[in-house]
Amino acid sequence: MREPPLQHNLVLILARNFASQLATAVFLVDVQGTVIYYNEAAERVLGRRFIEGHGMRLEEWTTAFFPSDAAGNPLSLEGIPLGAAILRREPAHDVLAIRGGDGVDRRIEVTAFPLFAHTDDYVGAIAIFWQPPGDG
Amino acid sequence: MRVRIWGSRGSIATPGPDTQRYGGNTSCVEVRLASGELIALDAGTGLRPLGVELEKEQVRAIHLLLTHLHVDHIEGLGMLAPIWSPETEIDVWGPASPIVSLEDRVATYFSPPLFPVNLSEVPARIRFHDASETEWTIGDSRVEARAILHPGPTVGYRIEEDGRVLAYVTDHEPALGTDLESEPPEWISGFALAQGADVLIHDAQYTPQEYERRVGWGHPSTEHVAAFARKTDPGTLVLFHHDPMHSDDELESIRDDVARRWGVPVERCVLAAEGSSFDV
Known about the structure:
Chain A is α+β, with helices and mostly antiparallel strands. Helices cover 27% and strands 31% of the residues of chain A.
């Protein structure tokens, strides 16, 4: 695991503070795509405590939850909303399936977007997700 | 470096018999570097008397570091005597908004109907520098700006010269939405600026009782200031941005409360007093 920076960018601090107060699942990554926070609601959907997921690098978390499309085809980073936010710096939304750390398969709806402190100052990305009504 | 307080009051200038010991001018701190350069931290009403002093000395190069553009931090700019001389060169540093430059934001204040003269009519040569997450040098010092938690784009500054550090972190609500006592340092707004500073000048506007009704206004309570000091461990904490409703006696109670909560002698926790100066 990388050493944490002396201090995160204020946008990330605010995003984490906001997420920590929300009942909706939020997943936050830094400029390298490393997991720096997800909230209690996200812990439930992902079936994994944050203390176990903290510091997961991009290549780890993109495979850890086995994302797949409606037909069951595996999705790479490029194929998931948070990947669009990280790789193309674009907002994205989609429905996909994951297998949580608890081994449970879940269908989730995800909206992700990049975080810019200033127009050209990309500092990380955030995903908000939930289980569609009837799936939870 | 030598530091002089020209204004330490928050929100609005507060002259009168109840504020004579600590002063009524709004935020302005003069820093004279050992290498000779002059830095002014913020342009509150304290900038006016500083400008008078600079005119006497015929100082013609000024580095003005703005934390943000709330009126109590820029209302002295038009009354800074040297800006009315074409021989003066001023480098102004401060936060841009995510989409508007610092210069355009300052020009909004420096124009009718808020001010009778437009910024473009000022004779001094003014250079604006966006300083949201930036490091640069002034003389032999290294200056660092970082965004801090306060409504609207706001930064704090860390100035290091000859191994000595002054941190200026006013207008700061680091405990908003979080518990400073349990939070890891990397998640605390302002931590990197203030950590281990020889002198930390920090906002101390509210008592805990006042804060209950002012959450999100951008300022801390004495409880938060003490927790922030425990985390960052400055040599001396200078309490700043005094609430305009607080008398000198009330400020001294606030100082005692911060020192008690922090667990240090009051000599390590002092009130910024207009006209006072100290070496860092």
